[in-house]
């Protein structure tokens, strides 16, 4: 029997098979689930974002050399707390894009925290080399920190000597590269043209390091030029040479710094000092004994401006991420009658 026509070119539908309908629904559901799983995987790239940071708080006793004032406080430690975000994306051919945003955090005082106050970079990696734009520690500062073992009450770094090194550059570009035993880094910061007077100011820092077995040697330079700046502005020059040695449980370090500064206008000298730093550490499982010394010579040939800075520390690891640390520091000024400050601290440090 010929099927009954329903409209032009259409035939009457066959009766619906319920079992076939159920089978079709199951296939559609399975297809939808598979699409939900496969599609994101197909669209995903190789980018990733990591959250990291430190939470460091301790009890610190501090006596001030200027007034002899004594203070006991719960405080964010010298190695400051922070939270950061960093990630990279593989662009193929050995090239990657990356970023880093790091903010200072003060667990004991929320008003001292701020967004991206420490590091802020975006850049490209080409094999073992990288370039980045943004703000952060200069090549000089990073090299100098190779010699600082301390975290709680104070740091033992040559940038503490008269505060001559800026530390972080704003509006900067940096380059880093590792080529076998040689590591190089350079930072350049330029003015933002905020005013006609400071638009040509600039800062440069560079470092070079060579490692051979247990020994490494290197040097760094820091130049800060305030071109056309205010009469109170200061131009700075820092030069650093250092050596490190690690063998088994023993680590040793030594550095020499030449720090110079003069007024941008008129060229009057405000600083000219040589400083020496020595440190040592001895590891015993999760424990470590630490010691350090800075010998700061006369500044600008001013009598009684020299001093020695001693620091001793003990670090006890409780896990891979948590440690307790005790530190004692003392500054001995050569001039009689000047208060010699002492700092003692016990802190808990947690990395994540």
Automatic annotation (TrEMBL):
<feature type="domain" description="Porin">
    <location>
        <begin position="30"/>
        <end position="334"/>
    </location>
</feature>
<dbReference type="InterPro" id="IPR050298">
    <property type="entry name" value="Gram-neg_bact_OMP"/>
</dbReference>
<dbReference type="InterPro" id="IPR002299">
    <property type="entry name" value="Porin_Neis"/>
</dbReference>
<keyword id="KW-0813">Transport</keyword>
<dbReference type="InterPro" id="IPR033900">
    <property type="entry name" value="Gram_neg_porin_domain"/>
</dbReference>
<keyword id="KW-1134">Transmembrane beta strand</keyword>
<comment type="subunit">
    <text>Homotrimer.</text>
</comment>
<dbReference type="Pfam" id="PF13609">
    <property type="entry name" value="Porin_4"/>
</dbReference>
<keyword id="KW-0626">Porin</keyword>
<keyword id="KW-0406">Ion transport</keyword>
<dbReference type="InterPro" id="IPR023614">
    <property type="entry name" value="Porin_dom_sf"/>
</dbReference>
<protein>
    <submittedName>
        <fullName>Porin</fullName>
    </submittedName>
</protein>
<keyword id="KW-0812">Transmembrane</keyword>
<keyword id="KW-0472">Membrane</keyword>
<keyword id="KW-0998">Cell outer membrane</keyword>
<keyword id="KW-0732">Signal</keyword>
């Amino acid at each position: 029997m010929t099927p009954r026509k329903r409209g032009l070119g259409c035939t009457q539908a066959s009766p619906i098979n319920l079992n076939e309908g159920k089978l079709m629904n199951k296939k559609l559901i399975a297809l939808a689930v598979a699409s939900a799983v496969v599609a994101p995987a197909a669209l995903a790239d190789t980018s990733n974002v990591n959250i990291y940071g430190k939470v460091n708080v301790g009890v610190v006793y501090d006596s001030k050399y200027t007034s002899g004032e004594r203070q006991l406080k719960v405080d964010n430690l010298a190695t400051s707390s922070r939270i950061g975000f960093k990630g990279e994306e593989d662009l193929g051919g050995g090239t990657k894009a990356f970023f880093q945003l790091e903010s200072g955090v003060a667990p004991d005082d929320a008003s001292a925290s701020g967004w991206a106050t420490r590091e802020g970079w975006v850049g490209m990696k080409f094999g073992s080399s990288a370039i980045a734009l943004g703000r952060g520690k200069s090549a000089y500062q990073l090299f100098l920190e190779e010699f600082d073992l301390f975290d709680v009450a104070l740091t033992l770094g040559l940038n503490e000597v008269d505060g001559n090194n800026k530390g972080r550059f704003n509006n900067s570009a940096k380059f880093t590269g590792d080529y076998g035993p040689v590591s190089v880094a350079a930072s350049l910061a330029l003015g933002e043209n905020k005013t006609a007077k400071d638009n040509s100011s600039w800062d440069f820092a560079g470092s070079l390091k060579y490692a051979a077995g247990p020994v490494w040697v290197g040097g760094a330079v820091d130049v800060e030029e305030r071109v056309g700046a205010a009469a109170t502005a200061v131009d700075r020059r820092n030069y650093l040479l250092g050596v490190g040695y690690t063998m088994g449980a023993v680590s040793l370090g030594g550095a020499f710094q030449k720090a110079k500064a003069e007024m941008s206008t008129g060229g009057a000298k405000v600083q000219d000092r040589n400083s020496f730093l020595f440190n040592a550490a001895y590891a015993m499982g999760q424990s470590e004994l630490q010691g350090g010394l800075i010998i700061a010579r006369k500044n600008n040939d001013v009598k009684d401006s020299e001093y020695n800075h001693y620091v001793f520390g003990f670090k006890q690891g409780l896990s891979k991420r948590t440690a307790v640390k005790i530190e004692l520091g003392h500054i001995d000024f050569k001039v009689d009658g000047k208060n010699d400050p002492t700092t003692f601290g016990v802190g808990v440090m947690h990395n994540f």
